[in-house]
Amino acid sequence: MKLSELKGKNIAILGFGLEGKSTLNFLLTHNIGFKNLTILDINENLQASKLVHSVTGADYLDNLDKYDIILKSSGVAINEKLLPYKDQIITQIQLFFDNYHGKVIAITATKWKSTIANLIYQIIKDVWCNVKLAWNMWIPVFDEVDFDEKFDYVVLELSSYMLSTLKKKNYISVLGRIFPEHLDWHMSFEEYFKAKVNILKGSEYNVVNFDTIEDFDLQKKYKDLISYGRWGKYWWSYGNFVERDKKLFSCNDTLLMGEHNLENICCALAVGDILELPLKCVHQTIKNFRWLPHRMEIIGEYGWIQWIDDAISTTPESTIAAIRTFGKKIDTIFLGGTDRWYDFAELINYIYSYNIKNIVFFPDTWKRIKSDLQKHKLREKKSSIMNLLSTNDMQEAVDFAIQNTKKWRICLLSTASPSYTNWKNFEEKWDLFKKCIKEIGS
Question: 0.70 cut: is pTM over it?
């Protein structure tokens, strides 16, 4: 849909969070010439703009036939009330692709897509290109990209919500690791997978994690995939990053921790090659690039304990990556949160393999993880003694860690589940964690 098609229309903005506010600001400041504009949101206490009409509360989806176009925030799922109006629904990200004609590097993965996006953005920026980063739901694309400004590249992180109905044409697409996530929204892993793989359609180049290609047999459906990671075209061997058999530089030339970050760097190398960026410049950026907040971030030592913030790890796979990174230095781990039907069997194997002794469980998944842990212990005839705490109170969790974690060992906040049962988001979870540990000894 072209922006000109919005002229003279009755438009509704569905969902008034970060993306909805961004869409409103865009429509009000770009002389769109719409007829009427209405905000629709279930939250009857929201502070909407005085410049437009609002419909809020339980009946906010009534009378949808009044609107010619419904600009839906990506995180709002299509339900039975919305389904009859699906032809009138469009998202901000679809509107962007329909109207922006510069070179877009689109990136998605279940986890670590923000690291990939930021690393690629920084590499391009460091070679003096005019580049913009739109960072998933943190920085909506309408807040970053002016259609009238010419960029060399736009680096765009996409969620499965954004991709579920997206039709696009773009320069490079990146597809990282895929494992079960957001099943409460997509209702099945099959639907989630279809949304993620949708990123490969309409791209000039597709850069894909080698394990993702193999696990889902993608080479049968998509041709000319550029692989990265384990056994891909760009990977690491004998302590060096390589392109096929060509040695590039040492794996020690990075501040990033963990094997998953070696994969992220391989992805950036692949994109750098497509863009024909000098390897020397790419190497220099990789050497200086620091990890993002809440991703295996070392907070410091308090009470003789090293505290690690991995608050954004909300799947078993991302928590496993943290366990593999810090290894047997981990003495205490905080687990659990909103139940999205994850399988915790492999995570529990790692907990036993790395001999993690102290575990805090948060609701709702606390009972399921704890039960699986006990079953594994009986099945494998484990004799190790663990200290377990079930709580929804962060102060109680930190006190437990102080009492049980050995000196100089690690307490890891990496819950393998989202935070919404107990906290507003992972940032609130992290804020409480930080507040509690900073008070140690004060």
Answer: yes
